[in-house]
């Protein structure tokens, strides 16, 4: 088995390049030998031998033609070092037992596929509440053509933390299809609803271009998510609940997406925008599986010299539906070409009128109780 074969069964661990495949029986034998020692010097001597064998990729561990285990070398060596550095025999043994468990059994929770016994392998997964993403992922079908899209790293990260392989993810504001492209990459089934027929056509084309290595279903539907028949599509997918909702609504009228009066970007005022967003929550959240999550991506706006905290207002709408707030993530804003040209002007206006130039948006993480 090659490393990429192994990871095709586990898209939550995409940093293939950092891994080596080691002979399973020999590796487990070396670890068992550490645990068979009755005193600290003996145990540490065995740990030192294991460390040397992994560091040098000893011939007894690689290309043996037998069953293999993928091991991320640096975190693994650090764990052996912990055994060597421990002050007591009991502590060294505890670390050695933990190392052994990490090799033979996985420990995941109900919400994602992250193996908590190997948690140091997951550098790629964010756990901080401040996201600074310098460069959008433009690989594959992620062309970044749609004004008002989100960076693919947002659905990517949220799916890694809040969904499992084969789960159902629904995006009621699909836009250019970013969420569904990520669904294909990560092996999640996905449905996206978009009010603009022409945007939906383009999104469908791009989603279809993306490879589908896990053979998941990704559907682009045209409709108004305030009244779209989510129950029917969920049943058509052979389910009765949704595992994750990702919502990236218009930031009210900052960008007008269509001329359709049911498009949230055409709401008459903030209250009516929030009412429409509330209708979408009422039409979707009842289908969210208990203990599972909704991620809402939303920025604030200015109107007539006043900061309108759309993010907090939308959060309030979600909380009033009984969802539990798990995190508020602050993410830096992309500087689009247009904005870059107006940078000096905005700075002048900010100095003149006592406000700050928007540089962030929110990702609200909410759990269904
Ligand atoms: C901020 S964009 C989402 C962009 C998307 N995340 C992407 O990466 O391309 C919001 C989208 O919601 C759509 N929209 C607005 N009101 C809607 C409604 N009532 N039902 C479904 N889609 C709606 C807009 O046409 C727009 O494409």
Secondary structure blueprint with pairings:
Elements: H1 3-8, E1 19-23, H2 24-36, H3 40-55, E2 68-72, H4 73-85, H5 89-104, E3 130-131, H6 153-162, E4 168-171, H7 178-186, E5 189-194, H8 197-209, E6 218-222, H9 230-236, E7 242-247, H10 270-284, E8 288-298, E9 301-303, E10 306-308, H11 310-319, E11 324-332, H12 337-341, H13 343-353, E12 360-367
Parallel strand pairs: 3-11, 4-5, 4-7, 5-6, 7-8
Antiparallel strand pairs: 1-2, 8-12, 9-10, 11-12
Write up what this structure looks like.
The chain folds into 2 domains: 3-121, no CATH class; 130-367, Vaccinia Virus protein VP39 (Rossmann fold). Helix content is 39%, strand content 18%. It is built from 13 helices and 12 strands. An 8-stranded mixed sheet has the order 3-11-12-8-7-4-5-6, sandwiched between helices. Strands 1-2 form a two-stranded antiparallel sheet. Helix 10 (270-284) links the parallel strand 7 (242-247) and strand 8 (288-298). Bound molecules: S-adenosylmethionine.
């Amino acid at each position: 088995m090659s490393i990429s074969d192994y990871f095709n069964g586990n898209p939550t661990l995409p940093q293939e390049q950092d891994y080596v495949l080691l002979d399973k029986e020999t590796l487990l034998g070396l670890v068992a030998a550490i645990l068979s020692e009755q005193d600290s010097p003996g145990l540490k001597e065995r740990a030192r031998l294991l460390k040397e064998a992994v560091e040098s990729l000893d011939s007894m561990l690689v290309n043996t033609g037998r069953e293999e285990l993928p091991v991320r070398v640096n975190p693994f060596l650090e764990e052996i070092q912990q055994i060597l550095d421990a002050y007591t025999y009991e502590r060294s043994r505890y670390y050695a037992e933990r190392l052994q468990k990490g090799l033979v059994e996985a420990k995941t929770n109900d919400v994602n596929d992250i193996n908590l016994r190997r948690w140091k392998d997951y550098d790629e997964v964010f756990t901080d509440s401040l996201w600074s993403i310098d460069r959008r992922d433009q690989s594959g079908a992620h062309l970044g053509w749609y004004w008002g899209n989100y960076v693919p790293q947002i659905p990517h990260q949220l799916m890694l933390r809040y969904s499992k392989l084969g789960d159902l993810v629904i995006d009621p504001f699909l836009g250019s299809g970013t969420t569904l492209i990520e669904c294909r990459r990560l092996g999640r089934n996905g449905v996206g609803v978009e009010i603009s027929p022409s945007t939906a056509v383009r999104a469908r084309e791009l989603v279809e271009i993306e490879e589908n290595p896990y053979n998941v279903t990704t559907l682009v539907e045209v409709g108004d998510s305030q009244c779209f028949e989510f129950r029917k599509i969920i049943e058509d997918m052979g389910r009765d609940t949704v595992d994750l909702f990702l919502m990236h609504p218009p930031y009210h009228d900052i960008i007008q997406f269509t001329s359709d009066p049911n498009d949230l970007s055409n709401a008459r005022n903030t209250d009516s925008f929030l009412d429409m967003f509330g209708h979408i929550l009422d039409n979707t959240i009842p289908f969210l599986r208990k203990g599972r999550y909704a991620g809402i991506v939303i920025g604030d706006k200015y109107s007539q010299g006043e900061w309108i905290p759309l993010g907090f207002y939308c959060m309030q709408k979600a909380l009033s539906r009984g969802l539990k707030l798990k995190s508020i993530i602050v993410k830096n804003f992309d500087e689009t070409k247009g904005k870059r040209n107006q940078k000096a002007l905005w700075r002048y206006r900010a100095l003149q009128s006592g406000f700050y130039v928007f540089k962030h948006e929110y990702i609200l993480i909410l759990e269904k109780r």
